[in-house]
């Protein structure tokens, strides 16, 4: 075998080994974990659910009653109405007649010195009655009426932050498959890294923390100029192995409405990806190494099949790739079952190829677009 062929073979073997390590050492932590059973404490802490909404009449009408009907002893739902010019205010006023624990904080002037929804969320947190906060979005619904109890069950004497899972509704079409798969893979990473003692992000669709923690770190001030980051950048700053808990049992899930247009989803993901450069160095290393070796394992395998002559090294490379693909499917599908996304792992090899192409485009898109919340 020529030197160039040998280099291709060795490079492929190395990146494949790294990828196998990610799947069987890192992602397997979530994949083979059993969700904790509810503890049913004698008392639950009072909770403030905070939702920032701008022109979300239809979503609030459809999903807010499910949040207002949770099986929980004491809680409020605080809607921050951020300059809505639809029927949001009228809807909330009508709902307040039926739900005494629904409150509203209305922003009627452009006083937002922050980017995105950090300013309205900050006002909502300041106006909340209770120290335990539970954040979600206007287009989200709890999967069950045990959502709040399931999230609050994870608080103990040291916990200040609980990271939950926010799924997307299953609908027809390839775009929906891409959205749900990307959500699953992202969750595989942030849950698994947290289990390794490296909590680095959460999702604002399902996130809880104590108000005292929010004030102690200065809220969103360290990244107020960035459109996104009220969830992942905040968690990246404050989360530690000691103060962070994970809630991924089915009862604690929320379900959001997915984008129906590829262009809208592409812009959303470009905005989310832009926050990654602000993560801590250790998190960027783990995430960057995974992304780079994921692209390389496919690329180098193709090169190996082209340039390595038929023989022992050709078959070894084929066997290693087969082992990688089987591992990818097995661990991803097992994690999918853990997160109640059964069936999402079987298409992992093909779906990963799409994301290998899309991820650089998201980064390039950020160079030419000013990201905004709405």
Kindly summarize this structure in a few lines.
The chain has 374 residues and is of the alpha/beta class. The protein has 12 helices and 10 strands.
Describe the overall structure.
With 374 residues, the protein is an alpha/beta fold. The protein folds into 2 domains: 3-31 and 282-366, no CATH class; 47-260, Spore Coat Polysaccharide Biosynthesis Protein SpsA, Chain A (Alpha-Beta Complex). It contains 12 helices and 10 strands. It has helices spanning 3-31, 57-68, 88-96, 118-127, 147-152, 174-195, 211-216, 232-238, 262-273, 281-307, 312-338, 348-367, and strands spanning 47-53, 75-82, 102-107, 132-135, 140-142, 161-164, 166-168, 207-210, 244-247, 254-256. α2 (57-68) links the parallel β1 (47-53) and β2 (75-82). α1 (3-31) packs across α10 (281-307). The protein is elongated. It starts with a helix and ends in a 7-residue tail after the last helix.
Strand content: 5-15%
Helix content: 40-55%
What form results from the Cα inertia axes? Answer: elongated
Given helix and strand content, the structural type is alpha/beta
How is this fold's topology laid out?
Elements: H1 3-31, E1 47-53, H2 57-68, E2 75-82, H3 88-96, E3 102-107, H4 118-127, E4 132-135, E5 140-142, H5 147-152, E6 161-164, E7 166-168, H6 174-195, E8 207-210, H7 211-216, H8 232-238, E9 244-247, E10 254-256, H9 262-273, H10 281-307, H11 312-338, H12 348-367
Parallel strand pairs: 1-2, 1-4, 2-3, 6-9, 7-10
Antiparallel strand pairs: 4-8, 5-10, 6-8
Helix pairs in contact: 1-6, 1-10, 1-11, 2-3, 9-12, 10-11
């Amino acid at each position: 075998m020529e030197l160039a062929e040998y280099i291709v073979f060795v490079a492929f073997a190395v990146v494949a080994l790294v990828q196998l390590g990610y799947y069987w050492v890192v992602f397997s932590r979530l994949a083979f974990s059993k969700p904790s059973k509810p503890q049913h404490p004698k008392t639950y802490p009072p909770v403030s659910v905070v939702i920032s909404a701008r022109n979300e009449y239809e979503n609030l009408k459809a999903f807010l009653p499910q949040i207002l009907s949770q099986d929980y002893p004491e809680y409020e739902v605080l809607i921050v109405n951020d300059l809505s010019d639809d029927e949001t205010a009228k809807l909330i006023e009508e709902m307040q007649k039926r739900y005494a624990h629904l409150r509203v904080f209305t922003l009627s002037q452009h006083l937002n010195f922050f980017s995105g929804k950090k300013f309205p969320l900050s006002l909502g947190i300041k106006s909340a009655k209770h120290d335990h906060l539970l954040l979600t979005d206007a287009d989200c619904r709890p999967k069950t009426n045990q959502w709040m109890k399931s999230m609050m069950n994870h608080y103990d004497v040291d916990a200040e932050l609980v990271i939950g899972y926010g799924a997307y509704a299953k609908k027809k079409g390839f775009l929906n498959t891409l959205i749900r798969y990307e959500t699953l893979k992202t969750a595989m990473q942030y849950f698994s890294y947290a289990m390794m003692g490296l909590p680095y992000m959460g999702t604002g669709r399902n996130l809880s923390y104590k108000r005292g923690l929010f004030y102690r770190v200065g809220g969103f001030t360290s990244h107020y100029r960035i459109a996104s980051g009220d969830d992942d950048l905040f968690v990246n700053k404050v989360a530690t192995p000691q103060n962070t808990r994970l809630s991924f049992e089915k009862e604690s899930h929320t379900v959001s409405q997915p984008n129906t247009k590829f262009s809208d989803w592409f812009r959303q993901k470009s905005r989310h990806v832009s926050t990654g450069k602000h993560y801590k160095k250790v998190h960027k290393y783990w995430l960057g190494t995974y992304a780079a070796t994921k692209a390389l394992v496919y690329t180098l395998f193709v090169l190996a099949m082209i340039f390595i002559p038929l023989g022992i090294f050709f078959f070894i490379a084929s066997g290693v790739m087969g082992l990688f693909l089987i591992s990818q499917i097995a661990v991803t599908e097992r994690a999918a079952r853990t997160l109640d996304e059964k069936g999402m792992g079987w298409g992992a090899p093909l779906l990963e190829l799409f994301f290998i192409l899309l991820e650089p485009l998201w980064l390039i898109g950020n160079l030419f677009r000013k990201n905004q919340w709405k």
